[in-house]
Predict the structure.
Amino acid sequence: MNFRGATFSNEADFRGATFNNKADFMGATFNNKADFGGATFNNRADFWGATFNNKADFWGATFSKEAYFTDATFFGSVKFIDDENGRIFDESASANFSNSNFEHPESVEFVSVNLNNASFLHCKNIDKIGKFEIVDWNSKDIFLGFLEIEKQQLMRSK
């Protein structure tokens, strides 16, 4: 499905949708609620540079391959919450939130998700996320790499 650069003025309702091929939402703008609850992404999901001006709901969605939220901006609440059917990000999936921006991080929830293959490098407001609960991490140091890189850059600039 190719929604690259699309603007969704009304609610974007993709609840329960199955994307067997690449789901391309690169640069898309969601002006109202973006509902991907229970959606299945069997291939790459690309939200690179997408703008979510309202709620973004991925409750019970399943990502089987790469999920790119790189450079995405979230202005409303964001929910990556698993339901009883399994993990949002499969063991073989990766999630990239590098350079993304959570404008209201207190309204962001990652609950019962597998973030073993996730990246939050240079993610704005990641330290203020409202809820990380029942999360599988590949490493306790997932964010420390970011801090060390920032520290090295500051030292070089002096």
Observations:
- The mean pLDDT is 88.
